[in-house]
Amino acid sequence: MRRLRFIIGVLLAVLWVAPLSAQQPTGTIRGRVVDDATQQPLARATVTIASRGAVSQADGRYVVTGVPVGPGFLRVRMLGYAPVTQPVTIVAGQAVVADVAMTSQAISLAEVVVTGYGEQTAGTITGAVAQLSMDEFNPGRIVSPEQLIQGKAAGVQVVDNSEPGGGVSIRIRGTTSVNASVDPLYVIDGMPVSTGQGGGLSAGRNPMNFLNPNDIQSITVLKDASAASIYGSNAANGVVLITTRSGAGRHGTQVEYGSSFSAMTITRLPEVLDASQYRTAVGARYPNLLSMLSNANTDWFSYIDRTGYGQEHNLSVTNSSENAFYRLSLGYLTQDGVLRGTTTERLSLGLNYDQRLFDNALGLKFNLRGSRANDRFTPGGAITNAFQMGPTQPVYDSTSVTGYYNWPGNSLTSPDNPLELVDLADDQGTTWRSVGNLQANYLLPFLSSVRLNVNLGYDVALTERLQFSPSTLHGQTKNANFGNFTRNAQSQTTGVFETYLNYAAPLGVMPGTIDLTGGYSYSQSHSEYPNFYENTLSSDLLRIFGIPNAGTVVPSLYVSDAKVISFFGRVNYNYNDRYIAAFSIRRDGSSRFGAGNQWGNFPALSFAWRLSQEPFLRGVGGLSDLKLRASWARTGNQGIPDYLWSPTYTYSNPYAQYQFGDQWVTTIRPGAVDPNIKWEATASTNLGLDFGFSNQRFSGSIDWYTKKTTDMLFDVTVAAGSALTNHLWTNIGSMKNTGLELMLSARLIDGHGRDLAWTADFTASTNSNELLTINPRAVGAQQILETTVAGGVGTFIQVIQPGAPVHSFFVCRQAYGSDGRPLEGQYLSLVGDTVLTGCSNSERRPYHSPQPKWQLGHTSRFTWHGFDLSFTLRAYLGNYVYNNVASNYGVYQELNRGAPYNLSTSVLETGFTAPQYLSDYYVESASFLRVDNIALGYAFNYAGRPWRAYLTVQNAFTITGYSGVDPTAGVNNVDYNLYPRARTFTGGLSVRY
Amino acid sequence: MNIRSSKALFAVAASLLVVAAAACTDPTVAPKSTVTPANVFTDQNSYQQFLARVYSGLAVTGQQGAAGNADISGIDEGFSQYMRLYWELEELPTDEAAIAWNDIGIPELNAGQFTSTGTMIKAMYYRIFFQVGMANEFLRETTDALLDSRGVGSALKATIHTYRAEARFLRALSYWHGLDLFGNIPLVTENDPLGATPPRQVARDSVYRYVVSELNDIMTQLPAPGGAAYGRATAAAAHMLLAKLYLNAAVYTGTAHYDLARTEAEAVIASGYSLAARYRNNFLADNNTSPEIIFAIPFDGGHTQSWGGMTFLIHATCGWNDGYNPNDIGVNGCWGGIHMRQQAYLNYEAGDTARTSFFYLTNHTIPMTDMWDFKTGIAAPKFSNRTSTGGTGSDLGFPDTDWPMFRLADAYLIYAEAVVRGGGGSRATALGYINLIRARSYGGTAGDITDGEMTERFILDERGRELLWEATRRTDLVRYGLFTGGDYLWDWKGGTFAGAPLDAHFALYPIPADELITNPNMTQNTGYTN
């Protein structure tokens, strides 16, 4: 409270000093600044006359008052445009109108870039910011908004999977945390969604899927901390600002309709033994099991995979008038995955409504989005079982209860018929979500040049996930579980209230321009996690549509609340577009920490020097932009579970009771907490250089950054007896990321009109991560093992260890025979190359990181007459994947089960009998080059309307030496039964009325 | 409304918003779905529920059965179950058993080649201190001063006094495990504050003395034998624990106390327990009805589930590829893990029927030629989820069978050993106890021994036969000086099939590396370099 008063006080002090006008006859000049070619209004153009000046507003309007009477020159300047000088004559006491049309020179410098609590022109930005807009987005079948920018921005890694709409994560400049959130903060039209929870709640695959990518105008990634830190909480992982399409444009009503159809096919499946190889292996190794085999020849994967078809329809109506515009959009998308049972469907509605009132003094923006997503999932285990099921066995069996064949004997260690599973089990999720906000900005009548902004927003998500397995499934009967049903109906409601004052000092008060922002933000969210599970069903007939009586019923409910309160302020100073400086500070209070540790301060400082604006460089060598940037900032991360600070007692569930006589007592366990946990903090420094030649025909940027995260939350082992358990969440570790990013873009063939044009973008980035300390107070080497491997219960494959990149693989050195084959169970000692039998913890070492050393991206776009052709390439170099499919299934011992499991063809190379999970043999180089997409479009007029038809191929092909199904194996890079990567063909048509 | 007035109204509303906003500056939110120390004891049932949690640390791995919301970290939750770990540490490095799985942490136990990074060793260490921590916290929260301040009535207060004695018993039990396995360990009690400086390391003999004095101190506060609900500790359990401590006193302190071991065993024997009619009844799903069991850890298919304990000991002791029918021991599947070394098998003589009735040799070889092949070495599913009347436990996955931690036959054998080792008492009585045990297995007097045959070594072998796979073997072999060294070799001792001598330092487990890292007061046990 005291701080807010201070901010307001400073603002007011500046205001009262400003209007010191001279007592001579003056007049006013007003008008509108527009782009000569498009007639679109230009904001932030500097208009000066004599010693007076003003900056044009969002609608292009400007007003300069107190101008001395008489003839003079109106000068209008804006980055990216040729300056305009226009003679005018000012009349005492009157308002002269002068509209100005400016000609663009280097349009990219003038682009409006959305930043936190404001906008800036690209040329004056001091931080590291990447903005991508509609024409740069990835084409094709895009379900999740994040996919729009995959491979497009240096330092921004978009990790997806191949389920349609499958969970996508964005990693900006490496990973800054291990245990707190590593997801960026998403802000949609000024509304932060679900701070620190990866975009909110969903019963589907990705919480961000509620947003129709077709409604997005631009995505801005605030990469360096100085740009992001105005968002304080969770800005440590960067901020992704999404701006939806609004109705701005030519006056009148416009209707747009687009539809597309697509087909997805599998590119690569895991390699398993075929029927004859399988029979040979069983015969050679376990001849006693040969009698179990039948004579079929079944390719199990072919029964669960398919071509996934999809379609999408988008209809929008926009209307624009002098003081208002709106855009109403309706979208429908459905897409089947390449495995049977996988479908995603979205119905979405969006409304953007802008209204200006009181002679533009009051602007209202209303954004509303709502959607319903239905996701159907291929039941868990389908891929595993398709892998393990014997290829000699038939698919159907008319004598069985379900009609599907299963191994006889009902053994716990016999695989299930994957088709039975896919056909008879259900797994689906429905997500209703709506995000909306009202933004008002009001030019205060009693304080000139001060704008009051208010942002009131909400985010409501209602989800329901339903899973059902009938009692007759082999997977149920072999476990003596006779059918189960699960219902998770989580909900989350978030409300946001923000208000801030913005003051742009009138020109002429001081050299250059200054604007000040100060504000307050409050957000509160409430989440409920009811869960219902039952097994041993009395009936299979209700499936997911009812709750039959059951042997075991386990309902539960967990409720949690979170609150973040913030104060923030920012000063931007710009001297002639030559020297630019910004300072911001945010003070955040979070409910995720206990009293005394709730508040964190997050300052940022940045400078830019536009050398190209210096007289000695102006026009030299065709230089159109040369800007040096430097910034330092501190950001925080509160993306941790609620109530970690609070000592609690936890009740046992009905299966963890204890017997006292004939009574079963529910137990209660005191939890071990560190009541002093606090924010993780990341301090980052960024140095950047932007450059452009020939009016930005060739442009680019280089950024170097280093980030150090301290007070990292680790669940560390503590001295026995010093806490209520052996581990405690506490702020203890530190980590460093250093990286380099390069972006180049060029209009290689600068075609005019309908001539051939070719633009090309190239991005490259490298990030090196090093964990510095886990527990600085501890003595000796420390490590935290993580990521369980499939098959080896309790075996962890990755490590967090000081000096190594986080999540490095942690393995033993495989010994090889003279024939180059790995020797089973034989390893080389870390020191001295002694051959050891078996791999013990003390002989393991961090070996390669899952993170790519280099990420490269390239997009080319050609246009010629009505045609456009583009493609996007993406390459990762130096990334490694642990092939858990080979390590778990590539061993002969897997044949020796209740029914022989089929094997990975890896066994033909290794000849291993028993699994060697911890061998570095399975840590494979997964560098790749992928053609992410190729798109061909044709625009034409028909029946007086503009049409566009297009064809795209996504994931056209991949070149890699990796032996598994996909070198981009998730975030942790452990390849285990990944959803197969698909190639997608899409054809579409759109028209405007 | 004209523009001017609406403008003014808007300005007023805007100012109000700013003021209203600035009023909200407290981000504190209290948890709703959990209880906190501030309110938990307003429900008086919490005392019993908390005590039950101190007990359940021996049975479950977290607050969600069979797995979930784990108690300790750094290990697979199923692996982290107290009795599973204790069993592995007491049995795997001995002549009795090995596990045929290559999971990290198991091979070094099978071969007796312990290292301080061993996963199971570390988890056992932390399990012990988890128990100690729960007991200490219970004692902190139940002082008379606190009970009075919460207005606890005198009847409940008396009950809580008994609870406190039980919590101290459980703490003593875990400290015994700690000093037996690890030697010099931290000694923390309810008087040591949490979160402060790391605890000091205390010499093994001091921990021993502390445990002995605790047990003697609570003896009269514990319920009399037979006077407590099933599952809870009585004075007989405390006597049994004291008997075991005294029996091994020479190992722990350098000074033998066989006389005290004998008198404690006598106190147990005088407590009204009797041998179960059939040996196997102690290991079945209804072993809660056995009159022989002094202290048990209850498991139950419907209420107390975990992936350790009896779930592990029943599923892992039968094979999936040797033709064994899991239904024979009342479960839905076999894991093919724990197999028996030939030395334990050859320790039995013909006629020892009841104690070998569950041995399964089909498709097995007697020598354990391959540690990783379940079918070398025999299978011995001693524990079963079948009842004494042929029924099956309530769940095929999670057995109802309870872990018989202390039983009368063990007290008989302790008595005999104490007598033979010169602890006083009567050789005739001792011989009578041994023949009582043997007659139950032989079905008559055919297996009776003479006084001359009742040697120290005979008692070790008899303990092996009677208490096979009951998690006492390592302690017994150490006491007899046979665990390390080369006087007694068994399959894979020291990592070779023929067996190799173990260095003397392996008689203790190493202090886990993680503990050495986090507690600078700790010194590693002699002989361990890592």
Task: Tell me what the structure shows.
The complex is a heterodimer of chains A (993) and B (530). Chain A has 993 residues and is mainly beta. Chain A contains ten helices and 54 strands. Chain A has a 23-stranded antiparallel sheet that branches. In chain A, α6 (382-388) packs antiparallel against α7. Chain A is globular. Chain A starts with a helix and ends with a strand. Chain B has helices at residues 3-23, 45-56, 82-91, 107-111, 119-141, 144-149, 154-182, 204-218, 235-247, 249-253, 258-269, 309-315, 342-346, 408-420, 427-442, 456-466, 473-479, 513-518; strands spanning 97-99, 185-186, 201-202, 293-297, 338-340, 403-407. In chain B, the strands form three sheets. A two-stranded antiparallel ribbon of chain B has the order 1-5. A two-stranded antiparallel ribbon of chain B has the order 2-3. In chain B, α5 packs antiparallel against α7 and α9 (235-247) packs parallel to α14. Chain B is globular and about 110 Å long.
Quick rundown:
The complex is a heterodimer of chains A (993) and B (530). Chain A is mostly beta strands and 993 residues long.
CATH class assignment of one domain in chain A: Mainly Beta
Number of helices of chain B: 18
CATH topology of one domain in chain B: Serine Threonine Protein Phosphatase 5, Tetratricopeptide repeat
Principal-axes shape call of chain B: globular
Q: Report the CATH topology name of one domain in chain A.
A: Ferric Hydroxamate Uptake Protein, Chain A, domain 1
Beta-strand proportion of chain A: over 45%
Highest CATH level, the class of one domain in chain B: Mainly Alpha
Secondary-structure blueprint of this entry?
The complex is a heterodimer of chains A (993) and B (530).
Chain A: H1 2-17, E1 26-35, E2 46-49, E3 52-55, E4 61-68, E5 70-77, E6 84-90, E7 95-97, E8 100-102, H2 107-110, E9 112-115, E10 118-121, E11 129-133, E12 156-159, E13 169-172, E14 185-188, E15 191-193, E16 216-222, H3 225-228, E17 239-244, E18 252-266, H4 275-285, H5 300-304, E19 308-320, E20 324-336, E21 343-357, E22 362-376, H6 382-388, H7 418-424, E23 426-443, E24 450-469, H8 474-477, E25 484-488, E26 491-504, E27 513-537, E28 550-575, E29 579-590, E30 599-610, E31 623-637, E32 649-651, E33 658-660, E34 663-665, E35 668-670, E36 680-693, E37 698-717, E38 727-749, E39 757-773, E40 784-788, E41 796-800, E42 808-811, E43 813-816, E44 822-828, E45 835-837, E46 845-847, E47 854-864, E48 867-877, E49 880-883, H9 884-889, H10 906-910, E50 923-925, E51 928-942, E52 945-960, E53 974-975, E54 982-992
Parallel strand pairs in A: 1-7, 1-8, 14-17, 49-53
Antiparallel strand pairs in A: 1-4, 2-3, 2-5, 5-6, 9-10, 11-16, 12-13, 14-15, 16-17, 18-19, 18-54, 19-20, 20-21, 21-22, 22-23, 23-24, 24-25, 24-26, 25-27, 26-27, 27-28, 28-29, 29-30, 30-31, 31-36, 32-35, 33-34, 36-37, 37-38, 38-39, 39-47, 40-41, 41-42, 42-46, 43-44, 44-45, 47-48, 48-51, 49-50, 51-52, ...
Helix pairs in contact in A: 6-7
Chain B: H1 3-23, H2 45-56, H3 82-91, E1 97-99, H4 107-111, H5 119-141, H6 144-149, H7 154-182, E2 185-186, E3 201-202, H8 204-218, H9 235-247, H10 249-253, H11 258-269, E4 293-297, H12 309-315, E5 338-340, H13 342-346, E6 403-407, H14 408-420, H15 427-442, H16 456-466, H17 473-479, H18 513-518
Antiparallel strand pairs in B: 1-5, 2-3, 4-6
Helix pairs in contact in B: 2-5, 2-7, 3-5, 5-7, 7-8, 8-9, 9-11, 9-14, 11-14, 14-15, 14-16
